[in-house]
Design brief:
With 73 residues, the protein is mainly alpha-helical. 88% of the residues lie in helices and 0% in strands.
Length: 73
């Protein structure tokens, strides 16, 4: 999203790190939510299986992003 790029280009150092990891946590939260919905509600079995199989990796990335965010406080 261009607004994110514009905002990030104005930051440096700790302000950049904090803004970046905030975006990563927010993005992972949205994606995990969508994959959880898909793994329960999608009618195509292949797509549902793919969503269910991908979800653990996404949750691991989400946990890593949250841990980094906590470490930056």
């Amino acid at each position: 999203d261009k607004s994110h790029i514009d905002d990030m280009s104005k930051k440096s150092g700790k302000a950049f790190d904090k803004a970046y990891i905030d975006m990563m946590v927010e993005g992972h939260n949205k994606v995990v939510d969508e994959f959880e919905k898909a793994s329960d509600n999608v009618t195509d079995e292949d797509l549902k299986t793919w969503a269910r199989n991908t979800l653990p990796t996404l949750k691991a990335h989400q946990d890593s992003a949250k841990a980094i965010k906590d470490a930056l406080k």
